[in-house]
Amino acid sequence: MPYSIDDLNRMDRAAFVAALGAVFEDSPWVADAAWEQRPFADATALRAAMTGIVRAAGTERQRALILSHPDLADRASRPANLTAFSQTEQAKAGLNELTNAEAQEQRDLNRAYRERFGFPFIMAVRFSSKQEILAAMRERVANEPDVEFGRALEEIYKIAGFRLDDLVKG
């Protein structure tokens, strides 16, 4: 259900967190902290506040946020606890339509990435094809750990922005 910014500004804390708690994957603490910054002038201000909360959260909490994201998964290896947002985003990117060879490569890249960095590969896949996703995985697995930590956070901010665009009208 899309909400207006006025609707969100009028909500009590519990309703606000229920409405926006999934914007940052399994991290309702972001919406909880954002509630205290109401009222928001518009969706852009809400997005900036939520992103700012994560930026200021510190490395430990940021790492926990990164770890809350699922591996990108083909239909056969998709975990049962994948959020509705993630299921929709991954399906729209064509990850349900990988060939057997592409699915195996993706699983291998997920494993190599996780072994190298200690967290899942994260990419805002909404406007990406399966080929672009695999190419990004191949490229980013070679990054330095501190570069990739920052890249993962930037991708999370994009994902959250897309989710807010879906949830906040006007």
From TrEMBL:
Its EC number is 4.1.1.97. This is 2-oxo-4-hydroxy-4-carboxy-5-ureidoimidazoline decarboxylase. Transmembrane segments: none annotated. InterPro entries: OHCU_decarboxylase, OHCU_decarboxylase-1, OHCU_decarboxylase_sf. The gene is uraD. Pathway: Purine metabolism; urate degradation; (S)-allantoin from urate: step 3/3. GO terms for molecular function: 2-oxo-4-hydroxy-4-carboxy-5-ureidoimidazoline decarboxylase activity. Residues 9-165 form the Oxo-4-hydroxy-4-carboxy-5-ureidoimidazoline decarboxylase domain. It is an enzyme of class 4 (lyase). It comes from Azospirillum humicireducens. The keyword ATP-binding does not apply.
